[in-house]
Amino acid sequence: MEYLVLLGIAVVIVGFALRLDSILIVFLAAIVTALLGNLGIDGFLTTLGESFVSNRSVALFIIILLVTGTLERNGLKQAAAELIGKAKGATPGIIIALYGVMRLVFAAFNVSFGGVAGFVRPIIMPMAVGAIEATGHKPDEDYVEQLKGMASGMENVAWFFGQVLFVGTSGAILVKTTLAPLGYDVDLLQLAIIEIPVALIAVGVTAAYYIIKDARLRRKFYGGESGVRKPDSVKEGE
Amino acid sequence: MAFFMDPEVLSSDKIMEVFYIVMGLMSIYAGVHNLRDRSNPSRYGTFVFWTLLGVVIAFGRWIPPMIDGLLIVIMVIPAIAQRVKPGKAAEPTDAEVEGNFRRIGQKVFIPALAIGVFAIAGALIPAIGALAGCCIGVFVSAIILWAFNRANTLAVFLGDSERLLSAMGPLCMLPMLLASLGAIFDAAGVGDVIARIVGGVIPAGNRTVGIIVFALGMMLFTMIMGNAFAAITVMTVGIGAPFVLSLGTDPAVVGILALTCGYCGTLLTPMAANFNIVPVAMLQMKDRMGVIKNQVLPAFVMIVVQIIYMLIAC
Predict the structure, then answer these.
(1) Would the keyword Zinc be found if you checked this record's keyword annotation (chain B) (predicted)?
(2) Chain-chain contact of B97 with A73 (C-beta, under 8 angstroms)
(3) Which DSSP string do the residues of A136-172 spell out, in sequence order?
């Protein structure tokens, strides 16, 4: 039964779907496939050793870690916060869209500011809520809930599609090392260039969608006067 | 030494071999550091994992493949047994970070962006290559950081990298293991078997159908598995190679866009908990699917855009 070698694929799909330990799944799948494919224990160990060593480029992130933590220590996140903080008087939708653009540009250089935990929660959300208050409105709970969803969505879209622009990102290296044994040699810079229009469209579409959605939500919750700045001395609905 | 003298070996490969030794030593440092850290709840397991990983990365080329394989098997045992853990981390204090920021300010972006700039520069110089360029960029970045702030000594860089590596844990090895899994699938002939089965369902030789099936398959597989990296290995061997690449399509376009088609799946699935469910908790949202709902439209637009892109470019 030659179809038996497919059991390894089944192990991967079922294993991930059941949320078992990822390393355990991959290892089980590798052993099952090797044994059913008549590689034997020797063949399994040799193929594993050979491919792991020839795929060491996927571990490139380790050497990048040499500066990642020290960049943070020297105020990278604070600098990013200052940069986005220049968007004064913007609507919540525009703040989220600008964050997406900034995140995309820096992701292309493999620079991250801490994701939802490190940046969206402490910096982007307070800015967005501050923008509602600056127009003299009380932040509505359901509206803020939607802003949280949009800010996280912007974070994910910009990071996913931005990091593939970095020449040396794990994803592109994995594609390269997956294609190599199949007989296709691809160039990392070329892979990054191919993704440029995809990344621009992804962030552009998402940013435009969130700006429009935010404008609709403001009309729904605060009526037609949204976006009109009231004098700072006026405080409503404390 | 013979490897570095061999004129047959590409200079970019020789440079990378030096950086693999650096990476391996960083991993070994993480192993030894955790062994000596009495606050680490799993000192020995953590030590075995990072040290063996470092040995294979640094010296794997000179070790017989079968022994490499054996070392990797031993390395993943503590990882599977959940015995690889971070110890106490010397995180920078807010006061220190604030002080550094006041001194360096926006200039900190220069070393941050240096790595990517050098990666591109390296890619444009064949004797260096993108990977080695990236590694050189890391060292340039470190030197600039040191020039800005002399408190950034080698010990600080090593300590910070160990802290991040330990915090990432063994899961950071998943892409490497998946790449190896792909090689094992290939050696066992998995691709041929799938090609024969799928060949009965979708018409072979039809480029348009092949591309659409591959793109949607990547999205759906990623949604089920919650991980585009896991999906790309299986799907490229099974669908991509026999039904799209064998027709003479551009392997670079199809290969990398398949990955980002997978990312469209990542945007849609609660299986990708780190991206879609953890933020819900972190931002104290009421709707568990609140993040995913805001990603549905971008994901569908992007899968369509990418299928059209593949059809036009191939």
Answers:
(1) no
(2) yes
(3) T-PPPHHHHHHHHHHHHHHHHHHHHHHHTTSTT-HHH
